[in-house]
Design brief:
Helices cover 29% and strands 23% of the residues. By secondary structure, the protein is an alpha/beta fold. Strand 13, helix 8 and strand 14 form a beta-alpha-beta unit.
Length: 425
């Protein structure tokens, strides 16, 4: 770690409600000072005129594939991809091989993550092997270092297990994050059920599969007065259910992903499996509902559901696994799809991609407040760039924004007081 002085940046920090031109001084891995015309001796001075300084992004939904599927991604490569996109904290989902359902697996991840480019937090499993038949020892998982629990990749099919987890987790200081899907309705579909799936002649997933899962979690939260966080919301009805629940005082929060406010099921007409994920891309009316949900606060956070797969796996449109990568493009997608059209300000976007996710997970991140970890990104909000999947930093290239021109480019990423990404390097 070196002392870093960032000069004349547009500081955009929802945590302190700062939106002005100023300086930031980083020392000993912390935010040492923030103000105007700071005068400190520093080993590195970054002249950031024309750039926006923001707290590092917190991506609360990432699949690092480590352990067990490291041909797709691993903790080291995943964190390199993260910081190239301005993400300095990630929450690793539990559908690894083996699943993150033991203290030993958590310890393996945290040990491997000690010297990587981003902060890695762990979501452990709610049930053994994500199979919904044996509950995990949540106290042991918390003691090993997990900050959240989920069976993500799958729903917790057994409602009793989910209800118990939702009641225990708050006592342990853990966040419950839920993949909402009725598997009986989904029945192995590979995309949104509708006119495009009919045109392509493939099995679709009805919107009701997500909506029924969302309704169940809201009902549990209401009945047991327990908090729940809903993952990757993609449908207008789920957003309406969450909005209504919040109005009634139910402790529900929710996230969406950039592909749900940028793309629709029409993208799958090319029969390219890179555009297949679960939940799938939906209709234009759903896309607009996602934007409205972000605008009115129904959707609290933007995460990526970063899900790497190898090119060979993605080669067959109908047999390929679901998922798309997203950490290197998420901020640019937010600027392109939300800020530039006027749906939100840059301050509001950073709140949903950094400040609020950090609060939901209870981690020390998401702000440039003095004394906070020195996780800072410098962004050119106006630079346009064409996404070349082959030049992305992760192992896999299944990017839904490939060949698109996006606006907004991360120029520097500082994590824990160390410059971990410099676009000029």
């Amino acid at each position: 770690m070196v002392k870093i002085l960032i000069k004349h940046a547009h500081i955009c920090d929802p945590g302190t409600n700062t939106d002005c031109i100023g300086d930031i001084f980083l020392a000993d891995g912390m935010i040492a000072d923030m103000g105007i015309d700071l005068d400190y001796e520093a080993e590195v001075t970054i002249h950031a005129s024309g750039l926006t300084a923001a707290p590092g992004l917190v991506d609360m939904h990432v699949h690092l594939r480590d352990p067990g599927q490291t041909a797709k991604e691993d903790i080291i490569s995943g964190c390199k991809a993260a910081v190239a996109g301005g993400v300095t904290s990630v929450l690793a989902m539990p559908n690894t091989v083996p699943a993150i359902d033991t203290a030993e697996t958590i310890e393996y991840i945290l040990n491997k993550a000690k010297n990587v480019d981003a902060h890695v937090y762990v979501s452990a499993a709610i049930t053994k092997g994500l199979q919904s038949d044996i509950a995990c020892d949540l106290k042991a998982l918390k003691k090993a270092g997990a900050v959240a629990i989920s069976d993500d990749g799958r729903p917790v099919v057994n409602t009793a297990f989910m209800a118990k987890a939702m009641q225990i987790a708050p006592q342990l200081g853990m966040t419950v994050v839920s993949h909402c899907e009725d598997l009986y309705l989904a029945q192995g579909g590979i995309m949104n059920q509708g006119k495009v799936s009919e045109q392509l002649g493939v099995r679709g997933i009805p919107i009701a599969a997500e909506d029924c899962g969302t309704a169940r979690e809201i009902a549990l939260a209401a009945a047991y007065h327990a908090p729940i966080h809903i993952c990757h919301v993609s449908t207008a009805t789920s957003i309406a259910l969450i909005r209504d629940a919040k109005a009634r005082g139910v402790a529900v929060t929710a996230e969406t992903a950039p592909h749900y406010f940028m793309l629709t099921e029409e993208a799958l007409l090319a029969r390219d499996a890179d555009y297949r994920m679960n939940p799938p891309l939906r209709t234009e009316s759903d896309r607009l509902a996602v934007i409205e949900g972000l605008k009115d606060g129904t959707l609290d956070a933007i995460a990526t559901d970063h899900a790497p797969h190898t090119p060979d796996e993605k080669a067959d449109f109908e047999k390929a696994p679901n998922g798309a990568i997203g950490m290197e493009t998420s901020l640019a997608a937010g600027i392109t799809g939300l800020v530039k059209p006027g749906y939100c300000t840059m301050l509001q976007l950073i709140e949903k991609m950094s400040t609020k996710p950090a609060q939901l997970l209870g981690i020390s991140a998401g702000t440039l407040k003095k004394g906070s970890p020195a996780d800072v990104i410098l962004i050119d909000e106006n630079e346009t760039w064409k996404v070349d999947a082959d030049k992305l930093h992760g192992k896999s290239k299944n990017c839904v924004f490939k060949n698109m021109t996006l606006t907004g480019k991360v120029k520097y990423t500082v994590c824990g007081g160390k410059i971990v990404f410099n676009e000029l390097d």
